[in-house]
Write a structure and sequence with these properties.
By secondary structure, this protein is mostly helical. The chain contains three helices and no strands. The protein has one domain.
């Protein structure tokens, strides 16, 4: 699934459980915070394990050729 259809499915699920639009907005925001924290933890785990090249990411972000 793509991100938009995932979001639509989540909203539909939450509506089917009787949540208001305000509650859904709060739940989606909290889920995004959780996802961000999990992604950050995963990146640091990958760095520690040597499977993630931080220098490559930095160079790409700064528009530098390797």
């Amino acid at each position: 699934m793509n991100e938009k259809s995932d979001d639509e499915a989540l909203v539909g699920f939450l509506r089917s459980r009787g949540h208001s639009d305000e509650e859904i907005e709060m739940i989606v925001k909290k889920l995004a915070e959780h996802d961000s924290a999990e992604m950050r933890a995963s990146v640091f785990d990958s760095l520690d394990g040597g499977s993630f090249d931080l220098d490559k990411l930095i160079n790409e972000a700064l528009g530098r050729d390797e």
